[in-house]
Sequence to fold (112 residues):
Amino acid sequence: MDCLFCRIIKGEIPSTKVFENEYVYAFRDINPMAPVHVLVVPKCHICCADAIDESNSQWVARIFEAIPIIAKQEKLENGYRVINNCGEDGCQSVKHLHFHILGGKKLPDQMA
Ligand code: AMP
Ligand code: ZN
Fold:
């Protein structure tokens, strides 16, 4: 299976790593939408939020445990936004579950 984020996790495609542990890999978005724009992905191929169930939700927990660590590292003490785009209408472009951490400025309050 040719998945961009699986290849980034394996180091086959370069990325700017900001955090890594046994379960999670986080790296800078190539097209940042805010001064800090980090993508947090599980080291397990899950296509999207819609595929999360009892059998794999522990990956999501591991991601959300990593997020505050990353936020602290990135000095987002004034807050930040966590976004997941899912499927066609959510405009998900990479089909490997990922959460965007956006911050470093006051973000627009509009969601859509
Ligand atoms: P989404 O639209 O939610 O699927 O987000 C995919 C994100 O991946 C976009 O914000 C892209 O800018 C980002 N992206 C795509 N290719 C790369 C890459 N090689 N390295 C880092 N970020 C990437
Ligand atoms: Zn993948």
